[in-house]
């Protein structure tokens, strides 16, 4: 989450009136950026990661772990150095060198940390990533009270269950109206509660999130959640919860905080130019699902073991602001479009680039886009695929409008464009350069679940960067699959142990010289249709290869072989690659599998899917011990990979 605007956010009834205005100016701002920046060339391959943490307070005597409201306070302290150095720099022109930057997130208990400046473009620099991540943990630790810890894990197991928040507050606040989450879990900056409130109001009801329960030996069938106060009647939406929002055999959640209160690992990569950014966007989008399955770290929601391992669908439902008309549940009358997906989800359209690999049939989802905006962009020289992309993002309303920021100079501001862009939360994000800045065209890779240890977070970051470098270096690498297959992959990537049990759609042939995948050399050249064939493969086959398929690790290694590296650097990179290999072949567990197994072997677990506060406490302490090297967990991080 970037820096926040200050001001007064408008409530939904006023914001909706200004939506068209914001869209209109947002498009003008995009056009200015495009015209000024489209010819930018030779930007360096800078990149950076974002790691989200949760602050937890422990009560060892009562064996209780609770998310701490103090996260926000800690963040203010963490930001002091940056504010002071910015101020000094503006006076003296001095260059700022900070180790880390700290940003707010949706949860009041959350903190986001990034490196102080983007990492360099050299491969040698990749070995510094883990040290920087460790440093971030140390910096936060210096400010924590004795009974506090920070944890990096996808979903907090007890969020919304029992006494999970320190200090306790009552649920059913005016913004979320949740049965389970007090509004106090939301970051106090007005943007966040307005976001939650406006999503609910725009939708016309509370969000409804249902994740399948993990049926253990003693879990009732059907499972009807006893924690839902079925007789409550505070808000009209409570009626909806009783009459259908909460599904049997599911864990029901009813607020934005259940989704945006999860943590993730994101990686932003700068490309040399806009064309290469488009290539990176398309190619990275197709590997998102399999990478997410390797990184799964969210098996528990609201105190119950779920039959999924990832947070993605929870967030998609948690911010689903579509009205009944837009969801296709009643006939379109007042709204403009029927929209198949939440504003959080996989991309709906590829951007194409000059590599020659894109084919129109890959964009096989009937795209909903704003035709007027498309026409306007097209008549201003924007090509078809880019105009479709932007006019698709702009079918959404701006959710939070700051009164003070309405009037802007479109030639120097991108605020209105970013308002819509930054609330289209997709598996990859195409980021145009901010106006008047040295920053170039970037792509953000967003599907990864955050890992418990810095080693794992570094391994996923480094592997993603190396894959991105290989994509840029090897123009004949082609990972395109149809968009709808990517959607299916993402659905499959959620399921319990997807990394071991699922198949993902992937191209049979991803590389022009990939003789391993032809399978029909005797018959000579593959036909065009053969080359385009999409088949189903396990994560292991996709990552590690198989007799018929080269595998992504081999591609990364081919790239590394083209770079001059010291032996020491190569060895370190090899440990990251070996870790990814282990996750894919099942020899190293995902955090989701580890957590599930911890819960199921806990003496207090009754095999009824319930993760009690006692189990939650022991789990949180164990994860913190692993993250800080006090407990060895080779089954999670790989043999010999110290934390
Ligand atoms: P968000 O859009 O998620 O708010 P930001 O724009 O704040 O993200 O940046 C997030 C990440 O981008 C950080 O890891 C940061 O180090 C990295 N970053 C910043 N500048 C660049 C750049 N020029 N190229 C690549 N990455 C960058
Ligand atoms: Mg974030
Ligand atoms: Mg981000």
UniProtKB/TrEMBL annotation:
GO CC annotation: glutamate-cysteine ligase complex
EC number per UniProt: 6.3.2.2
GO molecular function (one): glutamate-cysteine ligase activity
InterPro entries linked to this entry: GCS, Gln_synth/guanido_kin_cat_dom
Swiss-Prot/TrEMBL keywords: ATP-binding, Glutathione biosynthesis, Ligase, Nucleotide-binding
Keyword check for Secreted: no
Enzyme class: ligase
Any one Gene Ontology BP term: glutathione biosynthetic process
Reaction catalyzed: L-cysteine + L-glutamate + ATP = gamma-L-glutamyl-L-cysteine + ADP + phosphate + H(+)
Pathway of action: Sulfur metabolism; glutathione biosynthesis; glutathione from L-cysteine and L-glutamate: step 1/2
Similarity remark: Belongs to the glutamate--cysteine ligase type 3 family.
Protein name: Glutamate--cysteine ligase
UniProt organism field: Coemansia pectinata
